[in-house]
Amino acid sequence: MGQQAQRTARRRRLGAELRALREAARVSPEEAAVAIHGDRSKISRQETGRHRVTRLELDVLLSLYKVKDEKTRECLVALAAEGHKRSWWHQHGDALSASFKELLTLESEATDVYAFQSQVVPGRLQTRAYAATVMTGSDPLPQEELEFYIDLRMKRQEVFQQANPPSYQCIVPEGVLRQQIGGPAVMAEQLRRLVCFSQLTGVTIQVIPLCQSAFICTGGSFVIYSYPRPMGLDVVQVEYLDGTLYLEEDETVAKYQRAWGRLCATALPAQRSIELIESITRELESE
Predict the structure, then answer these.
(1) Which of 27, 192, 238, 277 has its Cα between 20 and 30 A from that of 86?
(2) How far is CA 265 from the centre of its chain?
(3) Are 216 and 173 in contact (CB under 8 A)?
(4) Domains (ranges, CATH) in the chain?
C-alpha cells in the first residue's frame, strides 16, 4: 500500500490541527502549498491525514501560521514523528490490510490500553491453540495464512516483556471464561496463561461475575488506546464482522471512557478475578 493511502490516527490528528492553525492564521491552502513547494491537493491530503508531513514542511507551516507556543509545536512534532521509524511488522507490510496496520501502530505507541472483550479472551492474551480456534470461527483461512496470523498475534504479546511495557487493563465477563472454546484442555491452558499474564508488570485482568445484576450497555467489545502528552490522543477501536472502526471524536471517546468506568465498577477486583479464573481452571482440569 502506498504511503499516500495510509491514514493513521496520528496523521488525522496532525492534519486536523494544521488545518485549524491555517484557518486561524487566515492562510489559504494555495499559500500554504507555495510555502512547502507543493500544490493545493498536497495540503488537502496532509490535512485529511492521507499524506505524511515531513519535519521540514512542518517547521515551514508552523512559521507561516505564526505558531510560537512551544507546547503546541512540541505536540505537533510528536504527531509528525510517526512514519520515521520502521516497525517490527514492516517486513509483512504487503500482506497486511490498512486497518490491521492501523491496529499495530496504535498498539505499539499507546502507553495505556483498556480492553473490554464480550465474546472471547482478548487477542493479545490468547494462546496459540485458543487463537487458532477463534480465528477459524469466522471465515475459514488457508492453513498457511492461518499460521501467519497466529504468529503475528503471538508476536504482539512480546510488548509485555519490554523494559517499559504499556499499562494493559482488560475486562471480560465470566461467561467468556466458561465457554470451552477449543475444548476443556485448550480452555484450561488459556486460563493458566491469563494467570501468568496477570503477574506481569502493568497487566491487570478483571472479570465481571455471572452473579453481577447490573447491565452495562457497550454495544459490544472495544479497546481504548491512550497516549501521553504532548500527543494528547485517545482512540477507540471497535470491531465488527467485516472490519474495524477507529473512533477519535472527543465526545465519542468520552462515552466509551464512561462505559469503561462503569464496567470497572461491576467487575471483581484484580486479585478476586484471578482467584475466580483459577477456580474455573480447576473445574476444567477435573473433567
Answers:
(1) 238
(2) 23
(3) no
(4) 3-80 (1.10.260.40), 91-285 (3.30.870)
